[in-house]
Amino acid sequence: MATVKIPADLETVLNDAWEATKKVPGHLTEKEARFLGLLAACVPARGTIVEIGSFKGRSTVMLAKVASHYGSGPVVAIDPHNSPILLDHQTDQEASSYQDFLDSIHAAGVSAHVESHAAYSKEVAKSWNRPIRVLWIDGDHSYEGAKSDLDGFFPQLVPQGVVAYHDALNNFPGPIRVFVEDVLHSDRFGPAGFVQSIAWAQFRPEDGASFREARSSLARRASRLIPFVQSGNELRGITKRRYKLNRFLVPHSAIDPGEWASIVDSR
Question: Are the C-beta atoms of 152 and 70 separated by less than 8 Å?
Fold first, then answer.
């Protein structure tokens, strides 16, 4: 079992990557972006970084800046760039985020380190056969979409690789349910946690069962959120307050590289 190695210059690299990332429109917070950068630099497995859901390239830039520095690319960015939620199709039926995405990665100087697929993830998954070390899922947030993304690419996730979902602690039905049911309840996974709204887990098919108690404890807290978000409707009043209380009870603080390494290296 390979151990996590924290590069001596990681903090500097993350700082530089964030300077480029924060210029790109998107909903990824600084702490979430830095955690993605940590994954790009330190996941102890070989393979590509697959990003499902790129929009204008905010997380793409973070991942690619860090991965290119350490020679651990490319970042494969998959997005049809026609989101009905993020784009105004009433004004422009052909609205697309693709040119903005290309402009973002060009401005950040990472175009050569990004393999872009302007396509639906389920189409790319049909012929995907490369090993994956980081599977970053930030696409369709419905239950069907979130599960399809995991099912489509999980077969190529290598041992010690990491799967991560965005918006698992926000009001969306898919990410939290799939993470709890398919990841936290599975002995194929080992260390797991939340960083702000990101849910992450390391694929440990050989010793995942030894982490069952910790995963189950996390699942009990996280599963309480599912009834609130499963309809996909906006939360209001007392329901919204109850959701926020239950979300507060799920540990989701930012994590520094050394702490994350100690969690992943635990047996």
Answer: no
Cis check: omega of the bond before 74, within 30 degrees of 0: yes
pLDDT digits (tens, 9 = 90+) for 57-112: 999 999 999 999 999 879 999 999 976 666 554 555 567 789 999 999 999 999 99
Is 132 within 8 Å of 153 (Cβ atoms)? yes
C-alpha–C-alpha distance, residues 47 and 157, integer Å: 8
Amino acid at residue number 70: Y
Question: Under DSSP, is residue 198 helix (H, G, I), strand (E, B) or coil?
Answer: strand
Beta strands 48-52; 75-78: pairing state: parallel
DSSP β-ladder status, 132-137 and 189-195: unpaired
Model confidence, pTM: 0.95
Q: At what angle do helices 30-42 and 257-265 cross, to 10 degrees?
A: 50
CA separation for the pair 138, 146 (Å, rounded)? 8
Cα torsion 68, 147, 264, 171 to 10°: value is 90
What pLDDT was estimated at residue 109? 97
What's the CA gap between 194 and 164, in Å, rounded?
Answer: 9
DSSP states along 79-104? --S--TTTS-TTT-TT--SHHHHHHH
Superfamily of domain 10-265: Vaccinia Virus protein VP39 (3.40.50.150)
Query: Do 198 and 172 meet the contact criterion of CB atoms below 8 Å apart?
Result: no
